[in-house]
DNA sequence: CCGCATCCAGCTAGATACTG
DNA sequence: CAGTATCTAGCTGGATGCGG
């Protein structure tokens, strides 16, 4: 049982809201599955994302403890992002959604927001 | 392992996108935890939602097979919404997120989108 | 290379009013 | 009761250009 009053903010609800932000899942999954990457490489992995949004999402994920940011103060600078242990556990939990998602996807009707 | 190229659309990603729509989770959880309800009652449960959005979200969830719509063609009309088996399985899968969400929530820093 | 500042267009959620 | 129609304001994301 999910112990959560829908009218109130609960951790699961908030977490879902966070993950639901634009480009958040693609970033999360890229870091989880394809491993750490520097800013530019990550931008190339996530086709279509703008610098602005990538920066913003990464900052948010970092603030929430899902992403590590490692900065080499060289010239030019090198900044590497990677998944934290917390993010790995999160992604493992998301696997539980896979079965339902697959079955749903087999016969869903498009148009989703 | 989540077998999903972040650059491509995969079922889990799409499902998350769907759930991420405004008011979607509150509606889903209300139907799952508090049971079936008629339109007006549901609107009262989900504090702050507008008729327009509630209708739209319910229509979408119905189209995707997560919600059942039962209409009594009386006067005045009575329409009852309830969770489908698929939605129940979805919510059970979401429970796996609970542990991570709780731990995260214990020390997250606000500001999420 | 890794961003940030700025500007702008488009969507969308809310408010409001109305109907079978 | 259970929606639908319309109008609008505000946010937000894309594009662009610049800077340490």
From TrEMBL, chains A, B:
Coiled-coil zones: none
InterPro entries attached to this UniProt entry: HTH_HxlR, WH-like_DNA-bd_sf, WH_DNA-bd_sf
Keywords: DNA-binding, Transcription, Transcription regulation
Tree of life domain: Bacteria
Alphabetical list of SUPFAM superfamilies matching this protein: Winged helix' DNA-binding domain
Database matches in Pfam families: HxlR
Every HTH hxlR-type domain range: 10-109
Official protein name in the record: Helix-turn-helix transcriptional regulator
UniProt source species: Pendulispora rubella
């Amino acid at each position: 049982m999910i112990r959560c009053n829908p009218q109130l903010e609960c951790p699961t609800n908030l977490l879902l809201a966070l993950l639901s932000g634009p480009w958040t899942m693609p970033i999360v999954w890229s870091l989880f599955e394809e491993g750490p990457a520097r800013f530019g490489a990550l931008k190339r992995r996530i086709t279509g994302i703008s610098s602005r949004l990538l920066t913003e999402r990464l900052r948010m994920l970092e603030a929430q403890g899902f992403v590590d940011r490692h900065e080499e103060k060289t010239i030019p600078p090198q900044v590497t992002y990677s998944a934290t242990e917390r993010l790995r556990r999160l992604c493992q939990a998301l696997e539980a959604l896979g079965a339902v998602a697959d079955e749903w996807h087999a016969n869903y009707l498009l148009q989703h927001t």
